[in-house]
Amino acid sequence: MKTDYLLSSLPIKRVEGILPETVTDLAVDSRMVNAGGVFVCIKGFTVDGHAYAHKAVEMGARVIVASEFVNVDTEKIAVVYVEDTTRAIALLAPRFYRYPSKEMTMIGVTGTNGKTSVSNMIHSILRNVGEKSAVTGTIGFDLDGVLYDTENTTNDVLTTQQLIRQAADAGCDTMTMEVSSHGLLEGRLAGTEFDIAIFTNLSHDHLDFHGSMDNYGHAKGLLFAQLGQDLEQKKYGIVNADDPWGQRLREMTAHPVFTFGIQSKADFQAENIKLTVEGTSFKLSSPVGNFVVKTSLIGEFNVYNALASIAALYAKGIQIEDIIDGLAIIPAAKGRMEKVETDLPLTIYVDYAHSPDAIEKAIDAVLPYKEEGSKLIFVIGTGGNRDRIKRPIMAKKASIADYVILTTDDPRDEAYETILAELEVGMEHDRYACIGDREAAVRHAVEVADKHDIIIFAGKGHEDFQIIGKEKLPHSDAQIALEEAEKKFGTGSIQN
Ligand SMILES: CC(=O)N[C@H]1[C@@H](OP(=O)(O)OP(=O)(O)OC[C@H]2O[C@@H](n3ccc(=O)[nH]c3=O)[C@H](O)[C@@H]2O)O[C@H](CO)[C@@H](O)[C@@H]1O[C@H](C)C(=O)N[C@@H](C)C(=O)N[C@H](CCC(=O)O)C(=O)O
Ligand SMILES: Nc1ncnc2c1ncn2[C@@H]1O[C@H](COP(=O)(O)OP(=O)(O)OP(=O)(O)O)[C@@H](O)[C@H]1O
Asked: Quick one: which residues bind ATP (predicted)?
């Protein structure tokens, strides 16, 4: 790309050295720099990218964008000084990747819970109607059925633009993105033009970062504000009418908004809901008539997720009948109330609930199907060095289960004892155990299980690791549980 064109959007303070005519690449990580590229020094929470300018040069960078002095040889390397490099990358990334979001329908999904579930539902339904589709979020970047790992739920602005370009070049019609409140506040979505913004719900989470629910809700609202003011463009908001924040977010966009819900009157409303252990059905009333919707997903929360997906896909112009056909055959998103297939005399779910509301919803989803005299065992951990206020509230919700195992979920640098003590405060009965080591906690769940019991392993979901200290160690709740259950209930009975 022509260097002049790339840099012309930047408010530049001064340039030292001679700019090359063209540049080949753009990077914010010195380890990812390619020869002939531009390296932008970002001040992070952990380190300052300015300290890696010399590394970027070693890797072949031709231009450094910095806000503070960098000691490189300006005979060979040009340094572009700007006031704010985070802002600079937000301008450079979409330009470098040629504003890829304009080439597709972009759907953003925000909310405390349900982002992964809804975005994957939308993706599966679109693929079922024959569209090429991409989705990015907590599980990774799925480009029309091929999954790539990513670091964050909402990636940094450069990775985001890279992924959207990849999806556009692969011929995707739609890209659905999970949009976290961190991502919105930190400008990771700069330059992404959304066509449809979905709000699932708002409940207690991440208060270590946001300070208050009000700040947290407003951060989510930024996605709706990001739909912009050009009303000639067909853009839509989709909000949960049963959540008080639904109305507030509705007011944050001038574009048309569809509502969905169960209790409140909504454009897409579910009535006559039938929840069984095999799946869910409901009558959908919609702007184009009434329909029966069936899915194998369990729990009332999945009715909300289905309604959000239906409303968004309707806004995109997909026929309701096709959306409903797609919902009938989709599997649970990886690690979201995902049943572990086995013919052991136990029912095991792996789930990602790590907020109080999600815990309640996960338990509610299975409690009605518990056999008389059997137990629901709930294993719940919480992350170290993260939101501590939610810990007792999580345990309070977990107390709905018959037996609770309090453990850790990425303890990071925090001692097991502090995490467990803060969880324990919320317990509302004494049928529980505190076991810091997650593997031991999983084994204990199976040890105390009798035939016909249900166990939910919450918090790790799709993740196959546990972060202890700075290390990411391999860990799988399902694998450990199956191993232990096989020992206890007999071999040869595991199906996966
Ligand atoms: C607190 C936070 O937001 N951290 C994010 C941040 O990390 P950081 O500020 O510590 O980055 P850093 O290590 O200081 O690096 C600064 C700069 O130096 C560069 N660098 C660094 C090392 C090197 O050798 N060379 C080099 O150039 C880095 O590439 C970077 O440009 O920038 C990283 C790169 O974009 C993110 O991956 C990282 O997310 C971490 C993993 C994280 O846990 N974030 C959480 C808080 C988060 O964002 N969560 C939400 C989801 C919430 C939810 O809904 O559950 C999310 O969207 O993921
Ligand atoms: N609509 C919903 N309302 C409440 N709880 C939900 C909803 N959908 C899913 N859940 C619960 O929350 C957990 C996380 O779901 P999901 O991964 O879809 O949410 P998320 O918003 O992507 O979360 P995260 O940002 O942490 O990845 C699920 O495992 C389930 O227990």
From this structure: 111-117
Structure ipTM: 0.96
The whole-number pLDDT of residue 494 equals 47
Number of separate helices (H) and strands (E) present in the chain:
16, 24
375 phi and psi angles, rounded to 5 deg:
-120, 155
Q: Write phi, then psi, for 66 (nearest 5 degrees).
A: -140, 160
**Binding site, residues?**
30, 111-117, 152-154, 180, 188
Better-scored residue on pLDDT, 388 or 101: 101
- Pocket probe for ligand 2: among 117, 178, 182, the residue whose CB has the most ligand atoms within 8 Å is 117
pLDDT above 70 covers a percentage of the chain that reads: 98
Pick the CATH number of 338-489 from 3.40.630.30, 3.60.10.10, 3.90.190.20, 3.80.30.20: 3.90.190.20
